[in-house]
Amino acid sequence: MPHVLMLRAIHPDAIAALKAGGCTVELLENPDAASLAEALPRAEALTVRLTAITDAVMAAAPNLRIVARHGVGYDSVDIAAATARGIPVTITPDANAQSVAEHAMMMLLACARRTWTYDARLRQFGWGVVPEAPTFDLAGRTILVIGFGRIGGRVARLCAAFGMRVLVHDPYVAQNTVKGAGFEPVKELHAGLAIADMVTLHVPSSPATRRMVNAGFLAGMKPGAAFVNTARGTLVDEAALASALSAGHVGCAGLDVFEEEPITRPIALLGLPNVVISPHSAASTAQGMQRMAMSCADSILACFDG
Ligand code: NAD
Fold first, then answer.
1. Residue 277: phi, psi to the nearest 5?
2. Pairing with 165, which of 39, 112, 186, 236 sits 20 to 30 Å away (CA)?
3. Using one digit for the tens of pLDDT, what is the confidence trace for 7-64?
4. Pocket perturbation via mutation, ligand 1, pick of 202, 257, 281 by most ligand atoms within 8 A of CB
5. What average pLDDT does this structure show over 161-178?
6. Nearest to 96 by CA among 298, 276, 248, 285
7. What's the CA-to-centroid distance between 151 and ligand 1, angstroms?
8. Is the backbone peptide bond immediately before 31 cis, with ω within 30 degrees of 0?
9. Is this prediction's pTM over 0.90?
10. Shortest CA distance to 63 belongs to which of 34, 26, 32, 19?
C-alpha cells in the first residue's frame, strides 16, 4: 500500500481515488521543519502545491518514488536532484489551463473597464466615468499574446471571440501553426509590443525568461497599453513595471503572480491605482482544483501501477 504524503490538502475526490487505488494518505497542512522531517521517511509519494522540494527534502525521504505537483511549472522542484535520484516529477498540465485563461480574460476586461476603480469610487458615491480611469472596448483592440501554449492558446481564442485582433509571439511555435489557428504570428517581440493595446504573458519561468519584462520591454509597449501577467512573477522586473505604471506609459496592469509570494510586506505595485491584483489564484477555481487533484492522483496511481 503506497503511502502518499500530502503537503497541503487537495480535492477530496482525489483523496478518495488514491484510497480506492490502495494508497494510504497522510495530510500535512503547512508543516514546520520538524513535522516534515518526521513524516518524510514514510513518504512513497508526495503531492505538493507550492512547497519547495529541494534535494534535502528528497534526501530525507528515502522511500520516495514520485513527486506529483498540483499545478503547472517545475520551478518549485529541484528537477536535477530528482533526476539524479531517479524520482519522476509530474505536473497537472491541462487541468488548470482553462481556469487561468478565464482569469486572464477577467483581468483584461477589468483593465478595459477599470472595474476596481469604479467599484471603490461608487462606494464613496462617485458616479460616472472619469478621465483618470479611461475605459475601452475589447472589440477592435489589438492584443499581443506572448507564449502560445496551453493557456496562451486558450486566451488567444477567447480574445478573438471578443472581436480583438490577436497577435501571437512564441519563438518555439511554427508561424503556420499560429496562422492555421487564425491568429497573426509576430516574429520580433518588439514589433508586436509597439502596436498592441494589451499584452498578456503566458510563458514558463526559466533562466532564459527571467525578468523578460524589463525596462526595455516596457518602453517598447504602445503608450497607455495594458499588461496582464497570470504566468510567473519572476518573468517581470517589478520595479520597472511600477515605474512604467506610475509614469502612465503602461496604462494599467492585471497581476496574479509576483516576484515574491506570498506578499507579506508593502511593494510599490500595490500602492498604484492602475493595478488590479489577485493572490496567485487564477488556477484555483472549484473545477480547476478538482481537475488538478485528480491529475495528481492519476499520476501517483499510474506510477505504482508500473
Ligand atoms: P505551456 O508550456 O503550455 O506554454 C508555454 C509557451 O510559452 C510554449 O508554447 C513556449 O513555446 C512558449 N515560450 C517559451 N519561452 C518563450 C518566450 N521567451 N517568448 C514567447 N513564448 C515563449 O505553459 P502553460 O501551461 O500555458 O503555462 C503558461 C504559464 O502560466 C507558465 O508560466 C505557468 O507557470 C503559468 N501558470 C500560472 C498559473 C496561475 O495560477 N497563475 C497556473 C498555471 C500555469
1. -130, 160
2. 236
3. 999 999 999 999 999 999 999 998 888 999 999 999 999 999 888 899 999 999 999 9
4. 202
5. 98
6. 285
7. 7
8. no
9. yes
10. 26
The question of whether 3 is a catalytic residue gets the answer no
Q: Which residue has the cell 496582464?
A: 228
Contact 133, 118 (CB under 8 A): yes
Q: What distance in Å separates the CA atoms of residue 233 and residue 24, rounded to the nearest whole number? A: 35
Is the minimum distance from the CB of 178 to ligand 1 under 6 angstroms? no
CB proximity list for 170: less than 8 A, separation 6 or greater: 146, 147, 148, 149, 152, 178, 185, 203
Residue 138: left (phi > 0), alpha (psi -120 to 50), or beta?
Answer: alpha
Q: How many CA atoms lie within 13 A of 166 on its CB side?
A: 25
CA–CA gap between residue 195 and residue 192 (Å, rounded) = 6
Q: Computed from CA positions of residues 156, 157, 159, 160, in that sequence, does the dihedral angle turn out positive or negative?
A: positive
Q: 302 CB under 6 A from ligand 1?
A: no
Residue closest via CA to ligand 1's atom 1 equals 149
Q: Which residues pair with 24 in a beta bridge?
A: 3
Q: Could you tell me whether strands 165-169 and 142-146 are parallel, antiparallel, or unpaired per DSSP bridges?
A: parallel
